[in-house]
Design brief:
- By secondary structure, the chain is α+β, with helices and mostly antiparallel strands.
- It is 25% helix and 31% strand.
- The protein has 4 helices and 11 strands.
């Protein structure tokens, strides 16, 4: 039933988009959320902005220079570890949704509702759901 996975990983983190990061030498995807892809753009007041880059930058800001610990629950179809991650006591998965820099994907519905109501992050304008954006940009995004 797939490759085994560690119960947790801890270490220095290096985010490469708004819902994926390296923790030490392990690739971890934040479970229950979906952030705009690196090349994805969103609209705000008729102006395009790089919401994918902004999502990655928000995750990096939330981590700061702190060590990250991720509780791992499974591997995804690409072999990445899926988990819930914490830095300096901050739930990174929930943080990304509550700041409006990721959409809820099976969890964090109340955080998404609050972000949507306050027009935080991507909710301040127009955006394509990251899953839909990936489907239309397969050549640009391997996963």
């Amino acid at each position: 039933m797939g490759d085994p996975f560690p119960p947790s990983v801890t270490g220095r983190a290096d985010p490469f988009d708004g819902d994926s990061l390296w923790v030490g030498d392990e690739e971890v995807r934040l479970k229950g959320i979906d952030a705009p892809e690196w090349k994805q753009e969103c609209g705000r007041a008729g102006v395009s902005w790089k919401c994918g880059v902004a999502a990655r930058d928000e995750l990096a800001r939330a981590i700061g220079g702190n060590e990250v610990t991720c509780r791992i629950s499974e591997r995804d179809v690409y072999g990445r570890l899926l988990g819930n991650c914490v830095a300096n006591g901050r739930d990174l998965n929930a943080h990304m949704v509550s700041t409006g820099m990721a959409v809820a994907y099976g969890a964090f519905d109340s955080e998404q509702q609050a972000a949507r109501s306050s027009k935080a992050g991507i909710w301040a304008g127009d955006f394509e759901n990251p899953r839909d954006w990936r489907a239309g940009n397969v050549a640009d995004e391997a996963r």
